[in-house]
Amino acid sequence: MLGSLADWISTTAVGQTVANVLWLIPALQSVHILAMGTLLMSATLISLRLMEVVGKDRSVEWYAERFLSWIWWPLAVLVVTGLLLISGEPARALLNLVFQLKMGLLLLVVILTVTVARVVKTNAGQWTLATSSQAKLFGLLTLILWVAIVVAGRLIAYVE
Ligand code: HEM
After folding, report:
1. Contact 96, 156 (CB under 8 A)
2. Which of 28, 42, 78 should be mutated for ligand 1, with most atoms under 8 A from CB?
3. Distance between CA atoms of 141 and 43, rounded to whole angstroms?
4. Crossing angle for the helix pair 2-11 and 69-88, to the nearest 10 degrees
5. 90 lines ligand 1 (CB under 6 A)
6. Does residue 78 have its Cβ closer than 6 Å to ligand 1?
7. What is the pTM of this model?
8. Which single residue of 35, 87, 101, 120 could bond 77 by disulfide (Cβ 3.0 to 4.6 Å)?
């Protein structure tokens, strides 16, 4: 099924353009990497604050309000550039186990981040998780997941 989806994508105008315009793939990869850097900066700051490694002089709410949008906007750019990258070589990504793992991990980290965002919002002003081991666990898990996603992204090129 994924095979026929890949075949179909490569016949589309977008797929053909990305595959045949020489500078498009490196340009898309560059934007993908810039967005990833921005996302990682914000995600790391929030994770480290949850783990109480940095910024204890400011609340978790402050960190969430300041940096969450700097996760969601770059993620939107990553989704768009990622999909365009796939369109250029659909079989290479869609049929690749590491790519599939990367998408699974991404889903997981998005669910965790939405959960943190919700807890912060509903507990506004009285963020109780902030001092608990649960918050630290959330921070550590999200950090590990983002790093694993980066490693998986890089590995796609090396694993069949
Ligand atoms: C739905 C979202 C995403 C899609 C569809 C996607 C798709 C892709 C694709 C198709 C590639 C090219 C792989 C190759 O041919 O070698 C790639 C590379 C990569 N992606 Fe993503 N990606 C997404 C999100 C992310 C996120 C959230 C991160 C990290 C936070 C990330 C990190 C990377 C890295 C590090 C590379 C390797 C870049 C390089 O070596 O040039 N991606 N991605």
Report:
1. yes
2. 78
3. 11
4. 80
5. no
6. yes
7. 0.93
8. 35
pLDDT at 38: 98
- pLDDT score, position 101: 98
Task: Check: CB of residue 85 under 8 Å from CB of residue 28.
Answer: yes
In the reported structure, the alpha carbon of residue 139 is separated from the centroid of ligand 1 by a whole-number distance in angstroms of 22
pLDDT digits (tens, 9 = 90+) for 42-64: 999 999 999 999 988 998 889 99
Is 157 near ligand 1, meaning CB less than 6 Å away?
yes
Q: Considering only CA atoms, which of 125, 26, 113 is closest in space to residue 74?
A: 113
Q: Which residues have CB under 8 Å from 129's CB, separation 6+?
A: 50, 60, 119, 123, 135, 138
**Tokens standing for residue 142:** 């999200």
Residue type, 40: L
User: In the chain, what are the domain boundaries?
Assistant: 2-155
The predicted pLDDT at position 11 comes to 96
pLDDT of residue 160: 80
Residue owning the nearest CA to atom 36 of ligand 1 = 153
